[in-house]
Amino acid sequence: MNNRILQGFIAGCLGAIILAVLMYILKGAGMGNPAFVGMYEGKFGPNPPGGQVVAALLFIISGGIWGIVYALMVKNSTILNGFLFGILPSLWLLVVVNYALGKPLFNDFKPMGIMMPLIFNMVVWGSFIGWYMSRKSKVVVSF
């Protein structure tokens, strides 16, 4: 497997873990379940088997998949282009995932419904993945 693709997957998974922890902190502050739990329950019904754990694992894996997409699309990683790349998973969520779950596109254009995915995917996840990949691209690994 291409080392850059593997690093993209790892970066995406780590970024998703950071987001999951942040969302659970917000849940502890009274902001409700993380969005990925709501999406999982929206697809499989309330209280599906494994609930929070399975939802979190699927969220982390999807972060890894988006990390692979980043690694394939962006050859010179920086925090800025990671930040900008974060708009793609945001648009995917706001259009494709919402449509698949029968929710309004762009979260019915409610400001928080649009801003939170952008903040999470661009500022947190995207910036992290750009930073991580820029550091990994400077290290030469040979086997």
Give a short overview.
The chain has 6 helices and no strands.
Overview features:
single chain; 143 residues
What do these coordinates show?
The protein is an all-alpha fold. Helix content is 76%, strand content 0%. It has 6 helices and no strands. The longest helix has 29 residues. It is globular.
| Global outline | globular
Strand content: under 5%
Order of helices and strands: HHHHHH
Tell me the domain tally.
Answer: 1
Query: What's the average pLDDT?
Result: 91
What is the alpha-carbon Rg in Å?
Answer: 16 Å
Helix content: over 70%
Secondary-structure map with pairings?
Layout: H1 3-31, H2 35-44, H3 51-73, H4 79-85, H5 87-100, H6 111-136
Helix pairs in contact: 1-3, 1-6, 2-3, 4-6, 5-6
